[in-house]
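Let us practice reading a record.
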Amino acid sequence: MNLDRNQIMEIIPHRDPFLLIDEIVELEIGKRVVAMKYVREDEYYFKGHFPQYKIMPGVLIVEALAQTGAVGILSMEQNKGKLAYFGGIKEAKFRRKVVPGDSLRLEVALGRVRSKAGTGTAEAWLSGQLACRCEIMFVIG
C-alpha cells in the first residue's frame, strides 16, 4: 500500500516543516511500515547543521523513524484519530551520514502493541547499507 504526503497527514498530525516522511511504500497495519524520506538541499535544518558540510541530524533520523512507526500504529482501527507519543529510544546507533540527495528508507517492525503503548525495531537504510538502528517505544493517547 502506497501513501503520499497528503494521505500520511490524514493519519499523523505532523506538518511542514516537521513532517519528515515523504511516502509510505509498504504498510502492514499494526505490524510493519516502510517509508521514504527524500533528503533535499533546502531542508530547514541544513542552514545550521552544518552550513559547510550538510548532515541530517541523527535526532531527526530517529524522529522520521518514529513518524513511520506512528503511521503503522495510528492506521489500526482502534487507534484512528489518536496521537502516538515518543515513550523512549534505546540503543540508537548511527552508521552512515545522511546528506542532501539521499533517499532514506525507513523501516519499522512493530513489536508489542498494547492498548496504550508499544515498541518497535526501527532501521534507516541508504542504498542497502544500514544508516541507523534503534528500538522505539511509544504511548498512544
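A brief commentary: The chain has a mean pLDDT of 96.
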